[in-house]
Amino acid sequence: MALYRAGEQEKAFSALVQSYKERMYWHIRRFVCSHEDTDDLLQDTFIKIWNAMDGFREDSRLFTWIYRIATNEALNFIRKKKIRGLLTMEPLDNVLYRQIDEDVYFNGNELQRELHKAIQKLPQKQKLVFNLRYFDELSYNEISEILDTSPGSLKASYHHAYIKIKAELEKKF
Predict the structure, then answer these.
(1) How far apart are CA 119 and CA 123, in angstroms?
(2) Cα–Cα distance measured from residue 163 to residue 95, given in angstroms and rounded to the nearest whole number
(3) Which domains does the chain have, with CATH numbers?
(4) What contacts 157, CB < 8 A, 6 or more positions away?
(5) Which positions ≥6 away from 76 have C-beta within 8 Å?
(6) Which residues contact residue 67 at a Cβ distance below 8 angstroms, ignoring those fewer than 6 apart?
(7) What is the signed CA dihedral for 119, 122, 124, 130, rounded to 10 degrees?
(8) At what angle do helices 151-172 and 140-147 cross, to 10 degrees?
(9) Inter-residue contact 32 to 77 (CB < 8 Å)
(10) What's the pTM?
(11) Cα dihedral: 143, 146, 147, 149 (round 10)
């Protein structure tokens, strides 16, 4: 942000994209389960960041601000997909499970594939907390900044998610 404030906006933005593009890609991908949709959302996320950089007041840390924007983009996309699913009569969960199974870029084993399917079955908040904590290895305080929720409730959400995922995987294996 110092570089941005010093008038080097394009250089600062380029550095920001280089620093966060892979991390944000995987963060978004865990929600939408599709490489193509993730690429589109990642681009939309960085466009929103670029357009909002002037207004970033630095009340929060840069990475939590970026995560919040990426998370909101992913959740809005999922909401729109759910609405479209109501029109086509195919539940979004079915679409996401199929995308996990058909993903040519997925290089994990069967256990990892089933883990991702189990995560997709979670309620939205539990899914979000689980992904941020388990995959992104963020602390509860960092997640609290991103989601504007108390660390205590996040711990409870993670615990419930863990129990549900464990039960789901025990059915399969």
Answers:
(1) 9
(2) 24
(3) 1-107 (1.10.1740.10), 109-173 (1.10.10.10)
(4) 125, 126, 129, 130
(5) none
(6) 24, 27, 132, 138, 146
(7) -50
(8) 110
(9) yes
(10) 0.80
(11) 60
Which residues of the chain form beta strands (DSSP E)?
Answer: none
Residue pair 146/67 in contact (Cβ under 8 Å)? The answer is yes
93 contacts 120 by C-beta, under 8 angstroms = yes
The amino acid that residue 40 corresponds to is D
Both structure tokens of 107: 């290089």
CB 72 within 8 A of CB 79: no
Q: For residue 130, give both structure tokens.
A: 């689980």
Q: Which pLDDT tens digits describe the chain residue by residue (173 residues)?
A: 777 878 888 898 999 999 999 999 999 999 888 889 999 999 999 999 999 988 888 777 899 999 999 999 999 998 887 766 655 555 666 667 677 766 766 667 788 888 988 998 999 899 999 999 999 999 999 999 999 999 999 999 999 999 999 999 999 88
